[in-house]
Amino acid sequence: MNLHPSKRTEWLASLPTLAWLSLFVVVPTLLVFVIAFRPSNPYGGIGAGWTLDTIRALATPSYLLIAWRTLWMSLLTTAICLLLALPAGYTIARAPVRWRNRLLLLVIVPFWTSFLVRVFAWRSLLHPEGPVKKALDALGLVGPDATLLYNPAAVVLVMVYTFLPFTILPIYAAAEKFDFRLVEAARDLGARPFQSFRKIFLPGIRRGVITAVLVVFIPALGSYIIPDLVGGPAGEMLGNKIAQRVFSDRDLPHASALSAVLILAVLGPLIAVLVLQRKGRKSDIVMGEAP
Amino acid sequence: MRRSRFPIVVTGLVLAFLYLPIIILVVNSFNPARYSSRWEGFSLTWYAKLFESPEIWQAVKNTLVIAVSVTAVSVVLGTTAAYALHRWGSTRLQRVHYTLIYQPLVVPEILMGISLLMAFVAVGAPLGLFTVFLAHVTFCTSYVAMTVLGRLQDFDFSVIEAARDLGASPWQSLRKVLIPMLRPGIVAGALLAFTLSVDDFVITFFVAGPGSTTLPLRIYSMIKYGAPPMINALSTLLLVVTLTAVLLSQRLANRRANSVTHN
């Protein structure tokens, strides 16, 4: 190793991951777009030749309904997560250091438990014979025949449960660096608590909020197990349709076409955030703040 | 100045919300009732049933074989990548490298599963333990790289230069200086890779074949096609194993980090 490492060592150190990820991420992703234009064959494989039929088949009302449902359920999940994570991240950041680490650990521990197990736990909680249903029934909040499982609300509830820790962490990370004297100054100058939160704290942790939105919204768009286990037909999302094309119909080109739509849907918010951040950085510099 | 109580109340509710399902699940694993709505006394029935099931043991074996080999490969790949990213971070090559590594972290799992399935079908690779291994290494490498990169941010390269000035060979400076200083990051990355591999369902579901059923795949079919109370017991055991592993590794990582800074 030289003090001024040559280009060769740089390539040598980068080549293993570059090769691996090209082979198992880039090429497969491109293949999805290619296979969407191929016909399927009766053996569940990919046929010869090219066709636009699969792409045309996407423009049916049933798919549009699924796409719309996927979008609003993901947006609702993101909004609820943010509403819960903002006060939680704020509280943890303002707690005394000793408490801060304990609270953080408490938020992280559910992340270390098996994802399937967490979804299963909700499935048995919401079960017609389960404790939540029994409790709500006893309180007279739902009728004896109400079903809590297999509807969009159950899917949103479990998605919020799953993604909430991922939302709290970036909000906390941003809030921890925030100078809370600014809020105190605003309060001294007569701002009400909610005003100082909205006008001072929220803009101050903007980056954390953007990260939090991304880590919920993008995986929510691609949700598959949660709607599969608690959604039923009324709560199906795009991910369920992709899986059905693969496992029930064994129609890989159709699954590819749907996945291509999902890839484009995921790219949208990612590019929007990149553009926003670039703009944000420029305006920071104009305002004379260090980025 | 009076601080609003509202955020603290919400935080308390959030924590209750996060833990309530897990606590009920653990309690119910000791409940012999099939539909867990009534407490019928403490019992280990479901644990006994669990230990009698040969499919579960086969699934545990598959899961561990995959997780251990995936951890080994992705730690080497991920650490090398993190080193390259940190050392030459500003070059165009490293910007491409970083984008590639970042990809598996942001793309929804189902997309990674489906695209890998298409690739394996396109080249005619038989689906099985090996395809699951390849898929797991792909996403675990990214997580290891990011974890080690985080550790490297406060790494001082002049230490390596000093070792070289004092006559250490490149290999010696790597083995005796760089790797020991990076050990906490590598341990954390390895633990993350292991946990992610053990827990992965979606990607595995797409690329697994006959004979490569892992524990999450087994749990999924148990959830879908009967045997719920047994899952309570299995989940409780998993919970105990992962929590012990996390606490142990955190303690280890802290101790090692302290001993490195003290020397």
How would you characterize this protein structure?
The complex is a heterodimer of chains A (291) and B (263). Chain A has a domain at 60-236: MetI-like (MetI-like fold). Chain A is 75% helix and 0% strand. Chain A has helices at residues 7-35, 53-57, 61-94, 97-112, 115-126, 131-138, 152-177, 181-188, 193-204, 206-221, 225-231, 238-247, 252-286. Chain A is globular. Chain A starts with 6 loop residues before the first helix and ends in a 5-residue tail after the last helix. In chain B, helix 3 (54-87) packs across helix 6 (129-152). Chain B is globular and about 70 Å long. The mean pLDDT of chain B is 85. At the A-B interface, helix 1, helix 3, helix 4, helix 5 and helix 7 of A face helix 1, helix 3, helix 4, helix 5 and helix 6 of B.
**What would you give as the CATH superfamily of the domain at 60-236 in chain A?**
MetI-like
Distance between the termini of chain A: 34 Å
Based on the coordinates given, report the CATH architecture of chain B.
Orthogonal Bundle
Strand percent estimate of chain A:
under 5%
Keywords:
heterodimer; A: 291 residues; mainly alpha; MetI-like fold; 13 helices; 75% helix; disordered C terminus; B: 263 residues; 11 helices; 78% helix; globular
Ordered list of secondary-structure elements with their pairings:
The complex is a heterodimer of chains A (291) and B (263).
Chain A: H1 7-35, H2 53-57, H3 61-94, H4 97-112, H5 115-126, H6 131-138, H7 152-177, H8 181-188, H9 193-204, H10 206-221, H11 225-231, H12 238-247, H13 252-286
Chain B: H1 6-28, H2 45-51, H3 54-87, H4 92-106, H5 109-122, H6 129-152, H7 158-165, H8 170-199, H9 202-207, H10 215-224, H11 228-262
